Amino acid sequence: MPKPFVICGEGRAVIRRSPKDVLEFVLDVDRYRQADLKIGRVLYVKRAGSVGEVSHNGRLFGIKAPAVVLQFTLTPYSRLEFRGIKMPWPVRGFDGLFTCEETPEGTVVVHRECFIFGRTTGHLFRLVLGRWLKRDTPAEVLRMKALLESTKG
What we know:
29% helix, single chain
């Protein structure tokens, strides 16, 4: 079986909110879609404590994309991981991660997201999607920062 092809983006910012505020904002997917422009209409969010599942339509370059289903695991309140369990072709998988570290200046937030493709489709998508994701993920974190810092805790 050919090795999968992974395309990732990463963003980092210091946000003047607590790690709990940051990660709960991400888990409020209807609100978080203001920062993550790849999220379309939210179909459902199921949560039982620190684990759950979310399904939403996608948007890629402003174009509607089929629904995805992601499982998440929260390590209160330092880490939030997402894993794709139902992804539309040609995407074979998704891994997303948020880490939060509280500092005197605010919470250092690092967000990494990786889309997993087959070898052939990965090569086709690498140039366009790779460049775009390298810009979009840091911009997503900055949009998150702006949204969180403009509201009261």
